[in-house]
Amino acid sequence: MKLKVWWLSNLIWLIIFSILSFVIFIRKVDGAGTIQTPATKLAAFIVLVIFFIFIVLIQLGLLLFVKRN
Question: Which residue spans traverse the membrane (predicted)?
Answer without folding.
Answer: 7-26, 42-66
